[in-house]
Amino acid sequence: MVYITRRETFAAAHRLYKDGLSDKENFEMFGKCSNPNWHGHNYTLEVVVAGEINPTTGFVLDIKHLKKIIHQNVISKVDHKNLNIDTDFMRGLIPTSENIVVSIWKQLVDKIPGGKLFSVKLYETENNYFEYRGE
Ligand code: NI
Questions:
Q1: Residue 54, SS3?
Q2: Tens digit of pLDDT for each residue in 3-32?
């Protein structure tokens, strides 16, 4: 098996909150990510694909193709968007990094040719990352 990682970055706004809670209660649950007037993060996304080398091409998959799949299915829907409002695959979810990383996995898992999606990692800050492997 060879593991291939494609890194992408995107900027997005969000607010973590639950309907029915006051601003103070939301702050207690979600901290400054509950700011009622939104805020943004510069996210880094790492998509890891695992596969055997195709003897004809020498590739597991064409990395240009992987980039295109990630852009069409994820980056175009999140970059410079509001994750609470604009992003169809986040509807009804609190846009925590946990929910974002699982949703991105679901966007990609059946679209990777030649290899299998192995892992999706989402960095919200330099110090925090969230990883999902489909389990
Ligand atoms: Ni936040």
A1: coil
A2: 999 999 999 999 999 999 999 999 999 999
